[in-house]
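Page 37, continued from 36.
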């Protein structure tokens, strides 16, 4: 089941991503579309305030997604600092970013939702067009710096790209790293 966390939340989608996933749920993040709405951090928080009661009553808040939101880590940090402290602050990320961008958000993000693709380097490369060394290093640093209860790892089974056995190998590797909240799911390729 796809989840952005508990409660009613607003997805803040960012454009741009270093990955080119064959099964991207938001492939338009790579398009140079001038009709995109953009905000500065204060404008965004003011816009989000219209749903303040829903966030507070349900335990929801903001979800930074993408594209790859870590490309805008400074902006996200500013938004989190301006936002109501009762709003949950979540990020959906591939962790494909420089550690300094992740580190910038460690103290402001309440929940990390990580789309790991697959830990097998060949499968990851086939999915994304990139090597997964940086992701694996970031996973190890994240578990050393963020309580494991604040991290949800999502491992997809994608017919034609990986096998159920590949998913299970990734899950076991993640458990060995110290992760306990792991969501296996089937991704339907249309």
């Amino acid at each position: 089941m796809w989840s952005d966390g508990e409660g009613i939340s607003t997805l803040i989608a960012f454009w741009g991503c270093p990955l080119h996933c064959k099964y991207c749920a938001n492939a338009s993040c790579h398009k140079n579309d001038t009709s995109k709405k953009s905000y500065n951090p204060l404008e965004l928080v003011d816009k989000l305030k219209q749903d303040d009661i829903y966030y507070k009553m349900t335990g929801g808040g903001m979800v930074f997604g993408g594209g790859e939101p870590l490309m805008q880590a400074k902006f996200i940090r500013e938004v989190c600092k301006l936002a109501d402290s009762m709003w949950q602050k979540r990020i959906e990320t591939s962790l494909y970013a420089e550690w300094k961008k992740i580190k910038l958000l460690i103290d402001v993000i309440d929940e990390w939702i990580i789309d790991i693709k697959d830990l097998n380097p060949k499968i990851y490369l086939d999915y994304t067009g990139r090597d997964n060394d940086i992701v694996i290093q970031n996973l190890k640093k994240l578990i050393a710096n963020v309580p494991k209860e604040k991290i949800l790892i999502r491992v997809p089974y994608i017919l034609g790209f990986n096998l159920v056995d590949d998913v299970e190998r990734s899950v076991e590797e993640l458990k060995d790293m110290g992760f306990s909240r792991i969501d296996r799911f089937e991704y339907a390729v249309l």
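The two ends are 17 Å apart (CA to CA). Flag for discussion at group meeting. DSSP finds seven helices and six strands in the chain.
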